Amino acid sequence: MKSKILVTCGIAATALSLQADPEVPYPTGYRDWQHVKSMVIEQGHPLYTAFGGIHHLYANNEALKGYRDGRFPNGAVIIFDLLEAVHEGNTIGEGSRKVLGVMHKDEDKFSATGGWGFEGFAGGDPSRRVVAGNAATACFACHQPQKDRDYVFSALRD
Amino acid sequence: MKSKILVTCGIAATALSLQADPEVPYPTGYRDWQHVKSMVIEQGHPLYTAFGGIHHLYANNEALKGYRDGRFPNGAVIIFDLLEAVHEGNTIGEGSRKVLGVMHKDEDKFSATGGWGFEGFAGGDPSRRVVAGNAATACFACHQPQKDRDYVFSALRD
Asked: Which of A13, A48, B13, B62 could form a disulfide with B76 if both were Cys (CB 3.0 to 4.6 A apart)?
């Protein structure tokens, strides 16, 4: 019986260690959140490969508090919704979703990356995570110089 | 006394006729409404003079019902928020507000223009109305071919 308990504990410990990277939840309902601002990133920009297209930022209510106070509370979520930029007849319109980027504030879960969890969902698909355990190098490294603004680049506008 | 009453009535009638064009209310709080979609209109486009820049569409709850049902109820408001497009380092960002366009559904007040009131507020300033009594020619003429879609060009997207 004792060995059976030990084996069971071993399996449980392995499962725990496999789940060690805290996961950013998919931001259900984000299209109803407040539109913060937008930008087009064009060919020739150093971030074109990763972020070329037209992107919109959205914020939930906790993130709106953060934009106003300069310090984002736990539960704040900022969305970077990147769509293809479709050039047609002297317009730039929106094409399909390239990636849905998420910053999710949780000081405890994401203490290694400034209290923010970072994730990207390819094509907006909740099952296609493109950052996973690489947030420190893939995301936080670029945000780190923004420490005085709680690691956030964007600002609310009228 | 009789002539005094007649004069008073005459003044009242004149005031009424001066107010005959129904006014579209300024859409207070529209930046909290749902972001529908965005587009950049560039030089060379036939509407560049009027609508060049980056614009965002927002919808209130009644307008969201209209997008879903194909028929917009009274009280539906759609915003066309036009900002300067700022080209810088292979990005197109947002500059100052050029005009805040409004479509406001009220079948009775705006029966002459498909049930929609049209207005533009220069620079987003509630006191600078640029359409006023010219909605039929300045706005509705372009929207009229969209009759089957209740005179609306845009559509909701994911």
From this structure: B62
Which tokens sit at B143? 């929207």
Of the candidates A38, A48, A89, which has its C-beta nearest B94's C-beta? A38
Which of A30, A34, A38 to substitute to test the interface with B, most B CBs within 10 Å? Answer: A38
CATH of the domain at B38: 3.50.70.20
On whether residue B145 sits in a domain, the answer given is yes
Phi/psi-derived region of residue A128, left when phi > 0, alpha when psi is between -120 and 50, beta in every other case: beta
User: What is the C-alpha to C-alpha distance for residues B56 and B130, in angstroms, rounded to an integer?
Assistant: 19
B126 close contact with A: CB closer than 8 A: no
Closest CA to A30 of A50, A68, A57, A70: A57
In chain B, the number of structural domains is: 1
Q: How far is CA B151 from the centre of its chain?
A: 12
What string of pLDDT tens digits covers the 158 residues of chain B?
Answer: 445 554 444 444 444 445 567 999 999 999 999 999 999 999 999 999 999 999 999 999 999 999 999 999 999 999 999 999 999 999 999 999 999 999 999 999 999 999 999 999 999 999 999 999 999 999 999 999 999 999 999 999 99
